[in-house]
Each structure stands twice: as C-alpha cells, then as structure tokens.
Automatic annotation (TrEMBL):
<dbReference type="InterPro" id="IPR036249">
    <property type="entry name" value="Thioredoxin-like_sf"/>
</dbReference>
<dbReference type="Pfam" id="PF13417">
    <property type="entry name" value="GST_N_3"/>
</dbReference>
<keyword id="KW-0808">Transferase</keyword>
<feature type="domain" description="GST N-terminal">
    <location>
        <begin position="1"/>
        <end position="74"/>
    </location>
</feature>
<protein>
    <submittedName>
        <fullName>Glutathione S-transferase</fullName>
    </submittedName>
</protein>
<dbReference type="InterPro" id="IPR040079">
    <property type="entry name" value="Glutathione_S-Trfase"/>
</dbReference>
<dbReference type="GO" id="GO:0016740">
    <property type="term" value="F:transferase activity"/>
</dbReference>
<dbReference type="InterPro" id="IPR010987">
    <property type="entry name" value="Glutathione-S-Trfase_C-like"/>
</dbReference>
<feature type="domain" description="GST C-terminal">
    <location>
        <begin position="78"/>
        <end position="204"/>
    </location>
</feature>
<dbReference type="InterPro" id="IPR004045">
    <property type="entry name" value="Glutathione_S-Trfase_N"/>
</dbReference>
<dbReference type="InterPro" id="IPR036282">
    <property type="entry name" value="Glutathione-S-Trfase_C_sf"/>
</dbReference>
Length: 204
C-alpha cells in the first residue's frame, strides 16, 4: 500500500487522482501535520510517495513510476505514444507549473501593491500563452479524443486540471481556450478527481 504525503489543493492532488485511476490502495498524510517531514524528503516538498520503505519524490517522476508499474490504458505499449505522454507531462511540470507558481510568489513576496499587480498580470500573460499551446496540441489530436491522452485523460491532463484550479485565487485575467476548458471539465468530472477533492477536505 502507498502512503501519499500531500498539501490540500497542491500538485500532490494529481498523484492521488492517478492512484485512484489505477485502483491502487493508499493512505493520505497531510505534510503540514507531519513532524520532521524534511527527513523523508530533504527538499521539503510534496508530493512524496512511500511504498515498502521506498520514498518517491517529484510529481512528474512519481507519475511515470506509477504508470510504468501498474498496467493501464494510460500507458500504451507504443514507444511513440509513450514519448508523447512524457513530453506532455514535462510540459505540464516544467512549463505550466512554474508559470502558476509565479502567481503565488508575487502574492507572498512583493509587498508593493502596484508592483505586485504588474508582476501578476505578466505572469498571467505567460500562462495564457501556455494554455494556447495546450489548445494547439488538442487540435492536432482532436481525431483521437478530447484529452491530450486521447479518449482518456493522461497524466498531463490531470496535472493541468489541478493547476487550472489555482487561477481562481488571483485577480488576473487567465484565459483558457474552449477546447482546453472542455478537457479540464472532463478531467474534473471524473469520479477519481471528485473523490480526491473530498478526501482532501476530510483532512482539514
């Protein structure tokens, strides 16, 4: 059984969703209530996933571990499709995640309100450009399904759905194209996503 260390609404939510999609048993632990979490993960970041004494860190790496360990339609046998999944996942992790992270940084680190708002608006502009990239990828694959993963969500779709929810916390204009919003709605409507949100609420 897995133990997932998380912070509610953080990117660790995506790992919980994936565990549910793969029908894997797990327990949840709120990192904020964990003593000496840094001994488990020296980076002091979530998610951290523990199994049989092994500790796995970094969200994208954990996703790939789960996909490669547990057979599912979300990890096809084709090397070309696997590469596509990895590229989408790295885009979500290395491009979209840091872009949203700049919103949190500005809110916490910039005291001057006009300067903070300018930073937030520039960060939102960059986020909007990235959502256009997602839209283009969906258009290129629209014959295969509504998700980046085709007929079912991929790991990247799940991460992107988590990030998209963060925008509501900021007074900026984040514009998500229609086809992307349909993809995000499809991910968030899945039982795995709904159950993950409820389980996080129960930790509060």
């Amino acid at each position: 059984m897995y133990t997932l260390y998380l912070i509610p609404s953080a990117c660790s939510l995506a790992i919980q969703v994936m565990l549910r999609e793969l029908n894997q048993p797990f327990t949840l632990v709120d990192q904020q209530n964990t003593e000496n979490f840094i001994a488990l993960n020296p980076a002091n970041k979530v998610p951290a996933l523990v199994e049989n004494g092994n500790v796995y860190t970094e969200g994208a790496a954990i996703m790939l571990y789960l996909l490669r360990t547990h057979s599912s339609k979300m990890w096809p046998s084709s090397l070309d499709l696997q590469q596509q999944i990895i590229e989408d996942l790295m885009f979500a992790n290395a491009s979209m995640h840091p872009a949203y992270g700049r919103l949190f940084f500005a809110s916490q680190a910039i005291a001057d309100e006009p300067a903070r708002q300018l930073f937030l608006e520039e960060a939102a502009r960059q986020i909007n450009q990235l959502w256009q990239v997602v839209s283009l990828r969906l258009q290129q694959r629209e014959h295969k399904g509504r998700f980046l993963g085709g007929g079912i969500p991929s790991a990247a779709d799940i991460f992107l759905a988590v990030y998209a929810r963060w925008g509501a916390h900021f007074f900026v204009d984040i514009q998500i194209p229609k086809n992307v919003q349909q993809m995000l709605d499809g991910v968030m409507a899945r039982p795995s996503f709904k159950a993950a949100l409820l389980s996080e609420q129960s930790l509060a």
